[in-house]
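Contributing: when you submit paired examples, paste them exactly as shown. First protein:
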Amino acid sequence: MVAFGGGHGLAAALAAWRRITPDLTAVVTVADDGGSSGRIRREMPVLPPGDLRMALTALAGDDADTRRMAALLQHRLGGSGVLAGHPVGNLVLTGLVEMHGGDTVRALDDVCRLLGARGRVLPMADVPLDLVAQVESTDPDDPARARTIRGQVAIATTPGRVREILLSPADPPVHPDVLDAIATADVVSLGPGSWYTSVLPHLLVPRLRDALAASRARVVVVLNLEPQPGETDGFSPEEHLFVLQSHLGGVALHTVIADEASVVDRRGLLSAVRECGAELVLAPVAEDRGVPRHDPVRLAGALREALRSVVAARQGMEIGERVPQPLVPGPVREGDEGNAAHGAW
């Protein structure tokens, strides 16, 4: 399977997927321009390493030695000098890329071996990307209601609603291994994560979008638990899906997974999912601690149920896509209560 995304959202997805399959490829955004990654990409001819590092550590092996190594790569240097704030892993990746003559994929494979990674990490493009957004102010008295904002950090921190997102360069080169992974995938996942700056950018790369449109893989979308300030203020789950649908460009959508406690209008979301030709899986996938974070074990359980038809096809069995009773109730019908129990609809 292939997981698209970046940052904490992709790390959460990988923590769930690794419980299901070892044949896992993370395709990671390379548009970060803030913090350590921003400093490195301004000073060195390399891809921003931060999101790549997070994906690598999310896939690290479970033995004590590799976990300690993963913790080291995540460790941020202290002090007040020029190295302050840099995660060790960002510097290690940058050094390996330089040692390999600019070959980022070879450097990532080296770190995967070092970590005993359960899968592989690849960049979504072979060159650093910049995001350009049209952001609409929420202030009715603002004379300039729409602004063009450049850069991931600026977009995420500009008050207002993102109305459009573009890439620069618009048609970046993509490593052949990424295209091969998509072509041979049984499953592709998008989300969770920053919708406009981590999830949608993958669909803006023409080579990636074309490969996804040609793929026979089942496409699964994991919706966010709540809107993100500066990107999707006030967005409902169905609005997230509408925006995604407008960027699919021929890419089929098969399953949408949402946290049952995060959905207010279940009928509205179900209608939006059906418009996409997909099925909806509602399940408790958030942590119990009150923080908006996906629980890897719960999310893995929802993903397993969503993919039963893929497993069945591989085993030569005929099993319907709906999960049988009594695990979940049937689809919501007219007259049913809006707060029906969770399940696959």
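Second protein:
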Amino acid sequence: MTEPSSSAPSRSAAPTVVRTPEELAAMRPSLGEVVLVPTMGALHSGHRRLISLAREKRDRAAPTAAHGSATVVVSIFVNPLQFSPGEDYDRYPRDFAADLEVCAEEGVDVVYAPSVEAVYPGEQIVRVDSGAMGRVLEGEFRPGFFEGVLTVVAKLFHMVQPDMAVFGQKDAQQLAVIRRMVRDLNMPITILAAPTVREEDGLATSSRNVYLSPQERHNALALSRALLAGADASVTGPIGIRSAARAVLDEAAEASPPVVVDYLALVDPETFTEVSSDYRGEAVLAVAAWVGDTRLIDNVPLTL
């Protein structure tokens, strides 16, 4: 289980808040090398780990960066393009004051918090297609999700012009499609991955955890238990891994409220296609499930 970094931030002053692309563009030449942490706000310990990694990269880059400077930028933007009708866009947790406090504590230099109108000044006709790897798993259950994610990430990359960007391993498929976009579109950006951060009980940190009642949270622990069971069975190969994880989830399906699984998959970490029964190499065991009205995802990297 990965915990947030215990190293103290090198700076604690309030970050500069930027609201428009024009303001950011005017500031950009003074920022030196930029490490971007894209978020939708509602910052928690998982985000702190992303920022901690960004801060470490900033502090290492500063002595050799152009003009001797490097900057951590955190973007805060709840992206409407990645929410389907009926999803939780309107109730998605938002607390900008608390987010700013977290950013100050973590040594963030700039917070970029544009309005929807600034990011989408008109109808968004042109979008970034994730291809086949974005139409399975999350893409199957949330049609258009990765198209919305890649479009807003591409926009943020154009506006912020980062040298590096940090994403969490918890959103493993998102991380994979972003890496593929950067590669396929020749974007001069290094993508960094921060390991999943978990609460003491094993639940992966998520902004949506606040939706869970105490009983729902208890039942939601089946996701991490299933992944752990699968990881423990890794020596048995793909069939044994899936069976061990599925047994935990089948039991949780009988709980009240039940854990209702969208998918449990053992996939190639680059393509997110299911691995064969004789597969050897790196893999990701991924799960998505509903607990009450809350949908949660989790995963664990494996080596077979």
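If you have annotations for the second protein, write them as plain sentences, like these:
Confidence is low (pLDDT under 50) at residues 1-11.
The first strand starts at residue 16 and ends at 18.
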